[in-house]
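Late entry, evening session. Most of the bench is empty. Finally got around to the prediction I had been postponing all week. Sequence below, unchanged from the version circulated by S.P.
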Amino acid sequence: MHLTHELELFHGHKVTQILFKDVTNAAELRQSAIAGKIKGALLNPTMVVNPFQVLVAANKAFNLQNSGKMKTRSLYSEIIFNLSPTNNISEAFKKFGISDGDDSVLVVLVHSEDESKLLSDIIALVNGQQVPVEDVSSLSDQAKIKKLYKVTSQEDKCGTLLDAVICRMATKDVM
């Protein structure tokens, strides 16, 4: 149900994604994350095209943390920020973080230890149905994503939406 990848450049460190739908306690989860009680990024899955998009953001965040160049205060807020095509931190949280009324959440954990305790802790906190992370595209709002990332119809013809999103995420620091 969850998806775990090892960060290739940082051996021993992993990124785990867990997707929930029919969530009834998004407001409580958001408050816990703000208070630092949840050691993970809580994402709005309607703005995620594919789990690879999240993996790219997490890898970039971990790299920036290790080099001391993060623009936000924590690794998990940096993941949310790295999903955004702009350099506006508060806008990134509005678009990619969960809101009080959301009924789905994608949880992202970065860890080095055995994940079973982390997973069970998160699963216990979320009042919702865990679904396979690969199903995130079924929750995606592609029209909103295209508008936010300014994906043109020409790009749609020659590549995928995921390609366009990853390109924007990767180049936002140099544009």
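Two things to note before I forget:
Residues 51-66 form the longest helix (16 residues).
The chain has a mean pLDDT of 94.
Will write this up properly tomorrow.
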